[in-house]
Amino acid sequence: MNFRFPVFLDVTGKRCLVTGEGYDVAGKVKSLIDACAETTYINPNAVPEIEQWAALDLMVWKRRAFEPSDLEGCFLVITDHEDNSRIFRLAEERGILCNSVDNPEHCRFSFGSVHRQGELTVAISTNGAAPALAVRLREKLEREIGPEYAALLTLLKESRPLITEAIGDFARRRDLWYRIVDSTVLAKLREGHTAAAAGQVRQLIEEAIQESTGVAREDSSTEPRA
């Protein structure tokens, strides 16, 4: 077991399979639905949440036991059976990522303890050594990283096209991003002053554009004439 390579996957439209029963199987299904995966759950029984999501056509529930052919076209599979070795072996043979819940020797990836605020995702892993520690660290981050970070990311995302278009020099763009992040914008958002925060971001962008334009004009004026 060596889950040391951190990665965030885009599973949009990818066929992802969950099979078996466990205390958090609904959570695994929901995480795939939220990530816009083409989600299929295969098990004779389902908890009420999964029944509801299937009824709303958010996913597919096949009310039967797992069959090897179910892996055809899958991007990843999550299995929570008493014995996951067979499904893991089948997935390995087909090059499919497999997670066996609470069964790390039959996993190709693991789930971290996750904290989200809008576009921000923080995932913590202890490489299976102490999941309880990962949970406590996540709870600490939940107290320290609040909804103001989601609001800040929204402002930054909305500002990116203007910054990219108006400031051609990479180093100047990078400096502007740090100037915004290190400013009092986050404090304003934390205090609920959304309009003031947005205004400050606009001001910082305008100042950076003026600086960039001024330098460009200065460089142009010093060019030797033919």
CATH topology of the largest domain: Rossmann fold
Radius of gyration from the alpha-carbon trace, in angstroms: 24 Å
Q: How many DSSP H or I helices?
A: 8
Q: What is the quaternary state of this protein?
A: single chain
What's the end-to-end separation, in Å?
67 Å
Rough outline: elongated
How much of the residues is beta strand, in percent?
5-15%
- Please give the largest β-sheet: 5 strands, parallel
Plain-language structure description:
By secondary structure, the chain is α/β, with parallel strands linked by helices. The protein folds into three domains: 1-111, Rossmann fold (3-Layer(aba) Sandwich); 113-145, Double Stranded RNA Binding Domain (2-Layer Sandwich); 147-218. 48% of the residues lie in helices and 15% in strands. It has eight helices and seven strands; from the N terminus they run βαβαββαβββααααα. It has helices at 25-34, 48-55, 85-94, 131-144, 147-166, 170-181, 185-190, 194-221, and strands spanning 15-20, 38-42, 60-62, 76-80, 97-100, 113-117, 120-124. The strands form two sheets. It has a five-stranded parallel beta sheet, sandwiched between helices. Helix 1 (25-34) links the parallel strand 1 and strand 2 (38-42). Helix 6 runs antiparallel to helix 8. The radius of gyration is 24 Å and the shape is elongated. It starts with 14 loop residues before the first strand and ends in a 5-residue tail after the last helix.
